[in-house]
# Entry
Amino acid sequence: MKKLAYIGLLFVIVLVFNCSAISQTTNSVSQTVMFAVNRSVKPDINTLASLQKMDITSNPSEAVVLKNQMKQQSSKVTISASNSISSKNVHIDLLSVLEAKKSVASNGTPLILTITE
Amino acid sequence: MNNSFFILIPVFKVKILSAIVLFLLAVTTSAELRSQSYSNTATQSITLEVKPISRISVAGNISPLIINDEVRGTDVSSISDENTNYSLTTNVENMKIVASINNRMPVGTKLMIKLASSKATSGGMVDLSDATAPVNVVTGISKISEKDQTISYTFAANADVNEIPTTSRTITLTLTN
# Structure
């Protein structure tokens, strides 16, 4: 029994050394990749849609809220508006209009909002 | 007088014989010495073995892959890095390079890798996003050495992915058979 144990141990030792020789055929390296997504917030369509229902000149406080929301959303987006579907579009800077508290469109006139970059 | 002469003859004969023997002895010894100097050799036994060797290494630093804004008119934004390269050497046939990622990429994003190779077959742009099990990136590597081959990483995000804080993944490249 002891002889068998010694033979087994010898076999294991030989196997270990052989395995170390075989492992030279496999070699690994590692790299660390860092990534992130940091996009500006897109204009909230609901915020813009609410402009259609609002008389900005008569609700200056709400206009300020909307103005601040649009400023936060994107500095690269220009929101323009035209006061008629059929007429020639006149693009105006809505943010500037809001700041100036000027009327965007007459009551009942469809307001088309165009978002451009 | 004549008696003295005849007594001396045997003495002369012994002396001549001695001289002849000495001469022959000298000649024989000289020949033997000369023959021995041309047959002096020694041998050594040397055992030679070349074990299988395969090594891969990388160099350079990967810049952070940060997507800031989507490109107008596209559904996917991407950014790439080619600041790292790899070198390898192997004396084994039919080796390949496989790549794996430690964790899956966030939903809506992809991480791709491309290893250039001048002597083997590159797998082109390989998607590692879900490659927690190794995938082939270079195949057909047999008894070659390659130096400073470019590694390209590309990170892509769908348009509906707004924000992902800076995160990292570990990519493991293995040269194996």
Remarks:
- The mean pLDDT of chain A is 56.
